[in-house]
Write a structure and sequence with these properties.
The chain is an alpha+beta fold. Helices cover 26% and strands 34% of the residues. Strands 2-10-7-3-6-5-4 form a seven-stranded mixed beta sheet. Strands 1-9-8 form a three-stranded antiparallel beta sheet. Strand 8 and strand 9 form a beta hairpin.
């Protein structure tokens, strides 16, 4: 179970603009929960919560450098995954800064190797595969798992009864404030029958 932490709203605002207040509260708490759960589904060890994707996958390639990735290393990672999982669902996942580094790769003539593809709305592609940006993926640094590739349908998420919002009517009444807190229940894990449908690139 994850908590959004508390938000305090003055009674004056709750009385003067109740609908606007409700929307502000829902947006703020929803964003907090979304950020918390994304971090957990990406990096959590899975001891008493969801298994983060980078903890469950196997090494497809180790980069030669500590702060850079080559086009060949992307290619090696892609082909480390069994061809059964190099399908229309397969994709890369990395942080925005890592994607920026990848998109700056050039050939010997100074031409960019990876360009946005107009067939998929101008989104960047790497070796013909789409890229999912996840800023909870680790940065380019020694020993970090920075890129995942494979069929992410094998990463499962279970949400229980959606989002729960509680109003703390009495706790902050002496300050003429209302308290709100959100909770979500969820779990997740990487389903691997032994063929490693998602693999990662780790920095040297």
């Amino acid at each position: 179970t994850d908590s959004s932490d508390r938000i305090l709203i003055s009674y004056q605002l709750l009385q003067d603009a109740p609908l606007m207040s409700e929307n502000l509260i829902a947006d703020a708490l929803g964003e907090r929960i979304g950020r918390i759960t994304n971090t957990e589904f990406t990096t959590y060890t899975g001891g008493d919560g969801p298994q983060g994707i980078i903890r469950g996958t196997t090494v497809g390639v180790t980069a030669a450098a500590t702060g850079a990735i080559t086009a060949d290393e992307f290619h090696t990672l892609q082909y480390a995954v069994n061809r059964a999982y190099r399908n229309e669902r397969s994709a890369y996942m990395m942080a925005d800064a890592t994607l920026r580094t990848a998109l700056q790769l050039k050939d010997g003539e100074g031409r960019y190797l990876f360009m946005p593809d107009p067939r998929v709305g101008g989104e960047p592609m790497i070796h013909g595969r789409r890229v999912v940006v996840n800023n909870d993926m680790p940065a380019l640094a020694t020993g970090n798992i920075t890129v995942e590739f494979g069929d992410f349908s094998h990463s499962k998420i279970r949400d229980v009864r959606g989002f729960t919002l509680l109003r703390l009517n009495e706790l902050y009444a002496a300050n003429l404030q209302g308290g709100f807190i959100g909770f979500s229940r969820h779990d997740g894990g990487y389903i691997n029958a032994g063929q490693n449908p998602i693999q990662h690139l780790v920095m040297a």
